[in-house]
Amino acid sequence: MAKKKILCIDDSVNLLQALKRRFEFDIPDVEVLITDNGEDGLNLARKERPALIILDVNMPEMSGEEVLRQLKHPHDLGKEELLTRDIPVIILTSYGPEMRSKFIEAGAVDYISSPFDTNELVTKVTDILSKDPT
Questions:
Q1: How many domains does the chain have?
Q2: CATH, residue 47
Q3: Confidence of residue 84 (pLDDT cuts 50, 70, 90)
Q4: Has this prediction a pTM greater than 0.85?
């Protein structure tokens, strides 16, 4: 059975490495892809078609909000872009919970404000991956 892929997009390399270690330790049969910028994240999502994306909002160059928009509502409705619409996205950000509804309405499945409980995040990720048929 192929490993399920989780794509983490965040400008904090330390957080990315910590998430990668934690997910790969706690969740069997996952491969964690990491990138520290939105453009690379979009390209990886289109190429790798992960089972889940964890996305920071406040990033330089391309914000997580723009990444989410392009994942869920692509302007160019080419075949490659359409394949990202159904990928679940968890927003992981330092913005407060008052922004939650904005990102849920934009297509995210969940919104977690920092500081966050890593155990809770692992539980949410495991739950989402268990619903993925691939």
A1: 1
A2: 3.40.50.2300
A3: confident
A4: yes
